[in-house]
Amino acid sequence: MLDLRIEPPTSCRSVLGTIVTDIAEGDRICLLGPSGIGKTTLLNVIVGLDESVPAGAVQRAPNLRIGYLFQEHRLLPWRTLRQNLRLVGVRPHEVEPLLAQVGLAGCGNHLPDQLSLGMARRAALARCLAVKPDLLLLDEPFASLDPQRAQSLRRLIGELLEARPRMAMICVTHDIRDAGELANRIWYLDGQPARLQWDERLASGGDVAGITRKLRSLEHKVV
Amino acid sequence: MKAAPWIHWIALPTSLLIWGLVAALLDTPLLPGPLAVLQTLWGEVRAGELQHHLGVTLRRVLLSFALAMALGTLLGVWMGRAPLVNALLDPLLVLFLNLPALVTIILLYVWLGLVETAAVLAVVINKVPNVAVTVREGARSLDHRLEQMAAVYHFTRWQRLAHVWTPQLFPYLMAATRGGLALIWKIVLVVELLGRSDGVGFQLHMAFQVFDVASLLAYSLAFIAVVQVIELAVLQPLERRASYWRQAGGRHA
């Protein structure tokens, strides 16, 4: 559904180096890598926010719908959750079911700042789902949540993915357990400029130990 | 901490009292007391003069205010968003900011004659740079993260304007409005004094010719009262409504 062919000229000091890959339906990618290496930049390139990348570098399938969960919720703070969802095209009677799906039933009239961090992130997730995405981008969805809330959000995302087998996902994370639980494919981004040091479909999910071993060996190689 | 409401009602009555006392002590026609001014005011009301001149001035204020806000906002947003436009127009903006109101008024009366267009235009030219400078600050501080969000979720131009930009610009527009109204009605009085045959400014001019301090004070106070009503009845409710969401953080669900 999406072909990526980032090939910056060697003279150019860009964050991302050569990255050539593709994303297919049903891919559940966990994007791992050190802090500040360019994982968010890569998501921005994929969604089309990065104007320094030539237009041909990202080939999206026609009418590809992308839902993007930013690190911050980025809901409009002066609009209620209902208004925020209505703005991306949710019909009035669909608001409540959508909020219920992410565990926020009855919160339609709250302002984003009235919610806790975890709730605001769920609301932002509801907005991602509202556009009925073919590709879901999640930028560190579990960061700054206490373990319990992170686990419940992980479970929620797992359920949402299960209910939409054709949807693809890229989830930026630092936690290999996320990869074990959610991913069927691993991207490991490292180096300066950053390249995909590892891009592999996992035969079976949940092999945290195997992923850890492989990552260790990669970290040594890059350094 | 919030001050008790009655604190607001100390300064004005005290000033009124001091004015009355000083006027009674001096006992001169150059400083009439509050009662004398009130009598003059009532006389003008009964003659229909006050309403007429207040109405004319208010019409000029509102017209030039609307024009100045519209032009200034457009210019400010444009300059705030486009560095090229900003670099091009900034020297002009500084020039007009420092151009004395009196110079604009005289020049326009000389060039266009003592007509209504010249009067309104002079006020607009004086006010547009102030609005533009304030709104430009707002346009510069628009949150780029919300811009990205709007791009990802394919907001239409109208949605961006109404739901992303206007709420962010609102405090700046409000500041421009507050400062604007106060500045504009003062300039309008000068414009009327120099080249119009009606309006509060014209009446002040007439009163000045005969040192009629009671009329001077009656007309000024009447117009200050009008501006105060606009502030209380229009601006403050508008601001409360639009900044409702700011207090939301304290009331967590």
TrEMBL record, chain A:
ABC transporter domain span: 1-216
Pfam families: ABC_tran
TM annotation in the entry: none
InterPro entries referenced in this protein's UniProt entry, alphabetically: AAA+_ATPase, ABC_transporter-like_ATP-bd, ABC_transporter-like_CS, ABC_transporter_ATP-bind, P-loop_NTPase
Keyword Glycoprotein belongs to the record: no
Classification via SUPFAM superfamilies: P-loop containing nucleoside triphosphate hydrolases
Alphabetical UniProt keywords: ATP-binding, Nucleotide-binding, Transport
UniProt-listed PROSITE patterns: ABC_TRANSPORTER_1 (PS00211), ABC_TRANSPORTER_2 (PS50893)
GO MF terms, alphabetically ordered: ATP binding; ATP hydrolysis activity
Family: Belongs to the ABC transporter superfamily.
Name this protein carries in UniProt: ABC transporter ATP-binding protein
Organism: Halomonas heilongjiangensis
From TrEMBL, chain B:
Source taxon at top rank: Bacteria
ABC transmembrane type-1 domain mapped to chain residues: 54-234
Record keywords: Cell membrane, Membrane, Transmembrane, Transmembrane helix, Transport
Matches recorded under InterPro entries: MetI-like, MetI-like_sf
Principal place of residence: membrane
Any GO BP annotation: transmembrane transport
Coiled coil: none
SUPFAM superfamilies the record matches: MetI-like (SSF161098)
Pfam families: BPD_transp_1
Localization: Cell membrane
Any single Gene Ontology cellular-component annotation: plasma membrane
Transmembrane segments: 6-26, 61-80, 92-112, 169-194, 214-235
Family, as annotated: Belongs to the binding-protein-dependent transport system permease family.
Protein name: ABC transporter permease
